[in-house]
User: Fold Glucose-6-phosphate 1-dehydrogenase from Pyxicephalus adspersus.
Amino acid sequence: MGIRASVEPKMSAVQEHVHLSRSEVCGIMREELYSEEDFQQAQTHIFIVIGASGDLAKKKIYPTLWWLYSDGLLPEDTYIVGFARSKLSVQDIRKQSESYFKATTNDAEKLDSFFKRNSYVSGQYSDDASFKALNQHLQSLPNGSKANRLFYLAVPPSVYHDVTRNIKLTCMSTVGWNRVIVEKPFGKDLESSNKLSEHISALYQENQIYRIDHYLGKEMVQNLMVLRFANRIFGPLWNRDHIASVVLTFKEPFGTQGRGGYFDEFGIIRDVMQNHLLQMMCLVAMEKPVSTNSDDVRDEKVKVLKCVPELTLDNIVLGQYVGDSVGKGEAQMGYLDDPTVPKGSHTPTFATAILYVQNERWDGVPFIMRCGKALNERKAEVRLQFRDVPGDIFQGQCKRNELVIRVQPDEAVYTKMMTKKPGMFFNPEESELDLTYGNRYKDVKLPDAYERLILDVFCGSQMHFVRSDELKEAWRIFTPILHKLEKEKIKPLPYKYGSRGPAESDVLMQNVGFRYEGTYKWVNPNKL
Ligand code: NDP
Ligand code: BG6
Assistant:
């Protein structure tokens, strides 16, 4: 049986158990996750963190491996090997990453045993001798020459070429399987992304490549498929006849925090819109896949993207934050005040863009994507706004229904709807059907996106990873506008740190038919 076919039914086991607490999850999970078949090629797994000295490794990769280890979810015989240029020891890795582990004093013994499974090799990314030394080290681990190998590329894109080449030439397991996890950015435009894809696919097969978009690992993003395809109530309404617009939002309440140098090369469209928001849009817009098999799901996502014409300048509003002179601390600093940002940069830190999916289901429905830094709140959500009720008998008192899938923080699904005002009244009033996770699933520990995704790689499930043809289509949609903005040096609109972004964004949304009434008031039941 192929890898995918053997693994995906078991992934539903992960989903079934995420409502259990961490400790409840331990023990039962590993057996459900892995079968003998998974270990046919090799019993031992080696997870190699390339770029082990870096920020991502310290804040995300090592902590995630620790959580999986402490929950007993990694295959029993797993080793972790760090590789980077800095001359470090396991002790150094431990020192820099342990504060992100959220471990308690009760974990002391387990932490020691986790770090006993760790080792570190220092070397140069472009040097084959360094990779030969890495391979020798991998072989020297118990059963190392027969192990399955997972390579996590936590390195800047400038070294992807060398690293992927050197892994292929010197570090591949000849007995077990090999999987390579690649972090975004996957290129800067269609051409650079194609070049990178061609390079990587000349070295590895698609089923060995795991392109991470960590939004695909988030609870509520994964829930989109279940809400849509496991319920009868939404299906008949999920189309242009009933839905007026779809809004996909990403907001962060902080600016570049001194890391503007990196951000400035990319800007908000490449950083968030072209990947995180577009992936969510695909899950909202796609047709029902034939099955939950990875390629069936990804086939449907690609079909959606193929129906999306290139983004045009009249369908976008760009912003760049300026300091708020009466704000506190960082809020006083505008994007251009960050010393790591080039003077006079036109890089947008905010964007609202309208995309259309030109197929029978969605023709004419605006998909409004909004993302920005230094805004008034942290929020990621998907909002479907329904059309007006036809043949109104309530003298214009009805407000549009909305279905909101709140991705973060405070995961929730809620439907804004009209109900009879309770009591001696007969007029409609705005209310909601509210599935707030914190109320419905008390004491639930939702796994972090990286936990799910790294576990998926161990299990060989590619459903929540980006396939090369998806990537190509995503860049096709955004590359022309990105080039135009850069060539014509189009200046973004200023917006104040801590605001909702430029007012022109609301105007654009209104022009394509999104209606904001400003009358809805939610009463949090926890605060009643
Ligand atoms: P609102 O009607 O307040 O907002 C609807 C949308 O309008 C939002 O997307 C908002 O976007 C946008 N908007 C806000 N101000 C303007 C404006 N001046 N012009 C144009 N658009 C605007 O309803 P919400 O659904 O947002 O609910 C209100 C609050 O109640 C939220 O904080 C929500 O999370 C909370 N709530 C929570 C629930 C739960 O957790 N279970 C259930 C129901 C509600 P923008 O992001 O730009 O502000
Ligand atoms: C990353 C972006 O992909 O996502 C960052 O590069 C952004 O700029 C981050 O801050 C947001 O992730 P999350 O999970 O905190 O919403």
Summary: The chain has a mean pLDDT of 92. DSSP finds 16 helices and 15 strands in the chain.
